[in-house]
Structures are given as structure tokens and as C-alpha cells.
Amino acid sequence: MPRITAGELKGRNLRYPEGERFRPTMDKVKEALFSIVAEEIIDARVLDLYAAAGALGLEALSRGARQAVFVEQNPQAYRHLEANIRALKVSDRTIVVRQDVRVYLKQSKFFATHIFCDPPYYYSLAKETLDLLAKNPGVTTETLIVLEHASNEEIVLPRSLKIRDSREYGDTRLSFIGKKGV
Questions:
Q1: Which range of residues forms the domain containing residue 89?
Q2: Long-range residue pairs from 85-90, CB within 8 A, at least 24 positions apart, any chain
Q3: What is the pLDDT of residues 113-169, one digit of tens each?
């Protein structure tokens, strides 16, 4: 069962939808991700795209993020996400949007210091989402995009983005992406 791995909510279990369509971020991957961004997550504003049950955004809140915006379209995942937020009593620091991520990125104005992006593997959603993020004025040179994808999935970046770092954990790769300076 997925859980919060550190911070004020450490050890709390998260409800997660069942079925092959849902792939929770493994605890070892979450721990590695947050050890990399540990200092900068404090007081951060995070955007959790393809949030599912909200594991990454909720982990960020537990570790000191100021606010998390979750975007999830699937009704089953959305119900679990809302239940997790209620159970953890972090409603005052969250915004939950039930919408397709691509529509959200085209229509919404947002500012996030960190964007967690965990689209379903192998559906070309990673490329499409990165293209939309590259065009969005809410993404600046200060924004860190963390893309979780299959380790054997080739990621094609828009010209304005660059990979700052990449780490592999079994079948999962975390790519740390930023906007190039002018």
C-alpha cells in the first residue's frame, strides 16, 4: 500500500485505486526524488499532474510544501485523491482539479515551483505534456519539472526545455527538467 515516506505525515497510508491502469510511485522512487529536492521543497508550490491518488503532491506537503494543486481526470482516482486529502487533513493547502491535464495546461494560469508529471507510460502523453508545459507562461527558468516515465521510454523535449538530471530506479526513470535561460 502506498504511504507517505517522510515529514509531518510520515507513515500514513494512502488509498489507491485498484487495477492495471494505476501504477503508484514506489516508495523507494519517492524517497529518492524527495532526497534530491529536499531543501527546495520547503515552502514550495507544487503542481501534481496525472495525480491519481496524489502520492507525490501529498508527500511534498508532508515535507513542507506550502500548497499542492492536483490535476486528475479519472473518476475513480479522483475519489481516492479527495479521500486521501480529507484523511490527511490538508484540504486548506490543496486545490483539486478534475480535468484532463492537457486541457488544464491549455486553459489555466498557474505558478508552481515544482511540477510532478507522472503520465501513463507509452501513450505519448509525456511528450504532449512537456510541449504544453514549455508553452505555458507559468513555467519559468526557476520551475523544476520532474517527469516519471518508463526507463526504456525515449523522451523528446521541446527546444526550450533541457534535462538537468536523470536517475533510474528499475523500470522507472525520473527526469529532472528545466526551462532553458534566454
A1: 27-179
A2: 85/54, 85/58, 87/12, 87/15, 88/4, 88/9, 88/12, 88/58, 88/61, 88/62, 90/9, 90/58, 90/61
A3: 999 999 987 678 999 999 999 999 889 999 999 999 999 988 989 999 999 999 999
Q: Which residue has the higher pLDDT, 24 or 29?
A: 29
Exposure string over 82-100, b if 16+ CB within 10 A, otherwise e: bebbeebebeebbebbbee
What values do phi and psi take at 63, rounded to 5?
-95, 10
Q: Are 150 and 129 in contact (CB under 8 A)?
A: no
Decide which of 8 and 25 is more confident.
8
58: in domain:
yes
Does the residue 1 lie in any domain? no
pTM of the model: 0.93
CATH of the domain at 116: 3.40.50.150
Cα(26)–Cα(173) distance, integer angstroms: 12
